[in-house]
Design goal:
- By secondary structure, the chain is mainly alpha-helical.
- It has three helices and no strands.
- It has one domain: Up-down Bundle (Methane Monooxygenase Hydroxylase, Chain G, domain 1).
- Helices cover 84% and strands 0% of the residues.
Length: 87
């Protein structure tokens, strides 16, 4: 356990940041799983509608450094490729 005030404050800030980032990641994963399920079920129209939301979430997470920007681009690319193949 840290003793200095600055270390204690840093721990509190890190904990808050971790929870905020975790919330974003969990929501992102839920959206991506929903799209995967729609694509597996060949429900392309609904998948396209949800894709815009997923892209927005990926871009925001990358912008805030919650995920790496290259990871966001890779996920977007793979989703588009899977959608264009028709599932």
């Amino acid at each position: 356990m840290p003793r200095r005030r600055t270390s204690l404050k840093r721990n509190r800030a890190d904990k808050k940041k971790h929870l905020r980032n975790l919330k974003v990641k969990v929501q992102l994963k839920k959206t991506l799983k929903q799209i995967q399920a729609l694509l597996s079920a060949k429900n392309l129209n609904e998948a396209k509608a949800l894709l815009a939301k997923a892209f927005s979430q990926l871009d925001k997470a990358a912008k805030k450094n919650i995920i790496h920007p290259a990871t966001a681009n890779r996920k977007k690319s793979r989703l588009m490729r899977r959608l264009s193949r028709g599932a």
